[in-house]
Structure formats: C-alpha cells, structure tokens
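Intended use. Records like the one below are meant for learning the mapping from a protein sequence to its folded structure. Do not use them to infer anything beyond what is encoded.
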Amino acid sequence: MPLYAFKGVGAGGKSVSGTREADGPKNLRQVLKRESVFITEMREVQAKESQNRKAAGGGNTQSSLKKEIDFKGMFERIRPTDVAIFTRQLATLIRAGIPLTEALAALSEQSDNKKLQMVIAGLRQRVNEGEALAKALEANPRVFPDLYVNMVRSGETAGNLDVVLLRLADFMESQNALRGKVSGALTYPIIMMIIGALVMGLLMVVVVPQITEIFADSQQSLPLNTQILIGFSRLVGNWWFILGPMGFGAMALLRRWSRTPVGRAKVDRWLLKMPVVGPLVRFLAVARFARTLSTMLASGVPVLTALDIVKRVLNNTVLEKVVEEARDSIREGESVAAPLKRSGQFPSMMCHMIAVGERSGELETMLEHVADAYERDVESKVNRLTALLSPLMIVVMAVGVGFIVFSIIQPILDMQQFVQ
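Structure written out for the chain above:
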C-alpha cells in the first residue's frame, strides 16, 4: 500500500502531522476523519506495493463503481444535521488557522454527502474568485437560509467568523434536537391512526358484507344501527374507487387553500385557539423566536435585521404579524418587550423576562433562558399529548369495533327470540 505524509487539524484544533498507509487519498481521508482529523496537506511518500488494477478490465470495474456511486448520490439530500456538522467542522478549521479556501477544500473532499460536496466545492470556487463567504452562501438559499447568511456576514465583518460559526452550529443542533423530539413523540400516534383506519376499512369492505348476507333472506326489520352499518359498508365496498380519489382531492384542495394568504391566516389563527394543540404551537414558536433572536443578537446582527429574519422562522402568520409590528415600533424608539406584550399573543412571562434583559443589558442571555424554559415546556406538552392520544385512539377503535359487533349480534338475537 502507498505511504502518505499528511498534515491536518485534530479534534481540539491542534495541528497534527504524520505518515499513514492507505489504499489511496480518499481512503486516508476517511480513516483520519473517523479519528476526528481533518487533512489540510497530503503527499505520497512511497509505494510499498504495485497496484496492477488497470489490467484485465480493472478500469471498467472502477468506472462502473463510480457510476454506481454517482447514481446513488442522485437520491441524497442535504439534511439540516449535515449543514450543522459542516458548520462546526468549518469553525474548527478556521480557529486552527487554516485559510478559508483550504478549509472548504478539505471539507468538500471528506464529506460523505455527494450533493453537499458539490455545494461546498461551489463555495470554494466563489471564495477563490474573491467573493465573501456570506455572498457565496446566498447562491444556495435552500441549504443556507437568510439566518445563516446574515450571521456569517456579521462574523466576517466583526472578524470573529469562527465564534459565529460555532454559535450557529450550536443553534442548528438545538433546533434539530427539538424538532426530532417533537416528531419522534408524534410518530407512534400517527402509526396507530393509520393502522386503525386500515383495520376499520378491512372490516367494512371484507368482513361486514359476508356476515350481513344472513340478513338478506330474512323478512324481519333490522335495527337502525344495523341498517346504518350495512349501508355504510355497501357504500365503501361499491364506491371505494371513487371515494378514495375524492378524499385525496379534498385533502389536496384544502392544503392548497391553506397555502393562500387568507387560508393560511385562518388556519394559523385556528391552530392557536385549539384547546390542546394551541399552547403547543404557541410555545414552540416562542422557543424558536427566543433562540433565533438570541443567537443573531449575540453574533452582532442588528436588532431590526434580526427581527425581520426571525419572523420567517415562526411558521405562523399571526405571530409573524406581531413581530413585524414590533419591528416597526422598535424603529420608532420603543423597547422590544412593549409591543410583544401589547399584542397579547406572546406569554407575559416571556415579555417580562425580555424587559428585564433590556434593562440589565443582557438581552441575549435572557432570551437564551426563555428559549430553554419554553423548549422544556414544549417537550413536556408533547409527552402529555402523546400520552393522551394513545389511549384516546384505542378507545375510538374499541367504540368502532364495538358498534360493528353490536350491530351484527343484535338482529341475530332478535331472530332467535322471534323463532322461540
């Protein structure tokens, strides 16, 4: 195997150098990456074994393998966790004194995500051409949103890009963790709902028609609940090919309407007023607002610019309008807490803590405390909602199955009494 001499950056930002055997440069990068070492320089010292892989079709095999890898890369997507890892690694390399272009080149070659590799390579090319990193990031808005770009721009302006990138990586990891907790807690109820719907549909289409055939030759009048069951079963069994597309069509129309300005405003207002879901949606938006605003202010982003970006991450038009009005009030000289409290949409405790932070000059720290508190509340509310939904769906399924069983057994018992 060839022997390579390398220089790189270790986990603590310390310079690392040495020699290592590997099948090739890519294999060496992968091996050292598992050891938390990022290569900045590498050269082949000597080859201990001759590799005759180009003979007898070896090149064709390598070509087909490359095509297979490229084909797999078509189905990859850049996840928020990939961007968070890239951000932390870039901050580590910059803090170690590695030039930005070299750091981007090292991360591009060591990334396992093919699409992210292409994005980082594009960033490196733009930076080599003289663009600032923030300007280069704007070319990929789906990967790097406005929040990311503005924080990087503030870090470049202030000369503390590594600090801002580390803070941004912490922020993205905390948001990904919160999103994972919420989606993970709701996975089980959703699966239960789908299974319950499939079971009820199977009973209505397959089981009920076979059992109710015994009532076809009977002259006895059937109870109302049995007639409803038979009618619904026939409706689903005979017209499922129409009811299915109609249901999907109605859902598509409702979703399209909810994306219009009027529809989204009504849906968002309705969500905030719901008994159980409303507080969860509100607290989740408040935690996101506090965490994002704290991160941007601590990175040196002006408060008006930060509020203009923060309102886009709330995902609720009612709260977005409140933040927009607050931004206009702050431009006229008001504090941050006053317009939020006046709206009545943000919790009073949050407004009070923001006011205290403004008076003490520690607004960023107070916003972090607010975010921590409401993220804990979101987690507890999600757990309570999950604990409530699971038995509720079991009860609903039991009631549905009980209705079917009772509607079948009741006329049978009536027929036995009639015979006696």
